[in-house]
Structure formats: C-alpha cells, structure tokens
Design brief:
The chain is built from five helices and eight strands. With 214 residues, the chain is α+β, with helices and mostly antiparallel strands. Strands 2-1-4-3 form a four-stranded mixed β-sheet, covered by helices on one side. The protein has a two-stranded antiparallel ribbon with strand order 5-8. The chain has a two-stranded antiparallel sheet with strand order 6-7. β1 and β2 form a beta hairpin. It starts with a strand and ends in a 6-residue tail after the last strand.
C-alpha cells in the first residue's frame, strides 16, 4: 500500500493507505476519544465519541470507520464535535453509578478519563434509578451490568476473536444489556472463562474476583 498525506488539526500526517482517520490521528499523537474502538476489533462506530469534522464531507463522521484519504483535512476539536461528545458522555454518566472513588476501575476507567478530558464536572441529565442484578456465578470474574456502557467490546471479543459466543447484546432500547443466551447466569452458559471480555472492558462492568476497590 502507498503512503498518503492528510491534515489533522493543522498538522500534516503521513500514513499508510487503508488506515482510518482514528488510526492516523493516533499515529500522529493526536487524541480522539473513543470507547468502542479496539486494535483487536474491526471498526464499529457504536459509541459515537470519535466524531470529527472533515472538510467537504457532510455531517460528523466517526473517525474509527472513516478511511483516511490523501488531501483530507480533518478537525477533531470544533464546537459541533465537542457538543456531540459531551452529550454522549453525559448520557452515559446519567445511566452509570456515581461511586467512582470506590469503584475497582477508578483512575483506570475509560469513561472517567474521557469525561475528565472533556471537562465534564456537572450532571445535566437526571440519574436513572434502575438497579440490575450482579452476576457473581463465574468463579473468576463478576458481571455488573449497572456499569455497562454498551460499547459492545466484550461481546465482539467473545464472538469475533475468541469464537465462543457466550454473550450478546440482548433486549432493546432502555432495557438493552449484555447477557447470555436465555439470560442465564454465566456459570450456566458456554463461557470458557478466558478473561478476554474482562481485559477489554473499558469500565467496571466486568471485574476479576477479589479485585480491590480504590
């Protein structure tokens, strides 16, 4: 593949043809927040946090699914982009527990890091009141759906990389959650306890047993 040159936030970046805008930005040391992107997975565009403005392109495309092109001019920090990102994160926080200081993922949580990067310090949206049961049946890790941000990384790792298919996104709308077939406990599913879902979870939804709180 050949080398192409694009401009990201005023900086000329040379990358291999076939790379995405997100990969090009990362290669240049330019941070674009993303919660569903992972080098082990094909681009998905689920979280909508990596939206950018690209000159001569309509709307706000996701950087993780948009291929970099020669001569492309990308803006990663604009009022429109930041408005979308802040709204997405604020909605996630509204449906997320507020116990960051005692969470096992404190200071290692990607949602926490993105919120800090965007300067989100106040809660605009009303907190949800639902409380889902925690699955502690697996001997190696716990699944707490209350912390889940539905990024889909655990599901895709289990299905596309590991080839196990023990979990999937179940139900619809506000009731959506990661679950096993038939909504059974993990111990009664075909989960192989390989731990890849835990390793790729960006928040505190999948935590190893005995993991200390902060």
């Amino acid at each position: 593949m050949g080398i192409i040159t694009l401009t990201i936030d005023g900086q000329e970046v040379e990358v291999r043809e076939g790379m995405t805008v997100l990969e090009a930005a990362q290669a240049a040391g330019i941070y674009i927040p993303a919660l569903c992107s992972d080098p082990d997975l094909e681009p998905y565009g689920a979280c909508r946090l990596c939206v950018v403005e690209i000159e001569k392109m309509r709307g706000l495309p996701t950087a993780c699914t948009t291929l970099a092109a020669d001569g492309m001019i990308v803006h990663t920090e604009t009022p429109a982009v930041n408005k979308v990102r802040c709204t997405v994160v604020e909605l996630l926080i509204a449906d997320h527990p507020s116990d960051c200081l005692t969470c096992s993922k404190n200071q290692q949580c990607d949602l926490q890091k993105v919120a800090a990067y965007l300067g989100i310090t106040k809660q605009r949206f009303r907190k949800t009141t639902r409380l889902l049961p925690v699955d502690t049946s697996n001997p190696f890790f716990d699944h707490d759906p209350n912390y889940c941000i539905l990024c889909g990384k655990c599901v895709r790792i289990c299905n596309e990389v590991q080839g196990v298919g023990a979990i999937d996104l179940a139900f619809r709308g506000y009731a959506s959650q990661v679950s096993t077939f038939g909504d059974k406990p993990l111990i009664d599913s075909n989960c192989e306890s390989d731990g890849e879902c835990v390793a790729h979870c960006p928040v505190g939804a999948l935590i190893p047993k005995g993991c200390p709180t902060a």
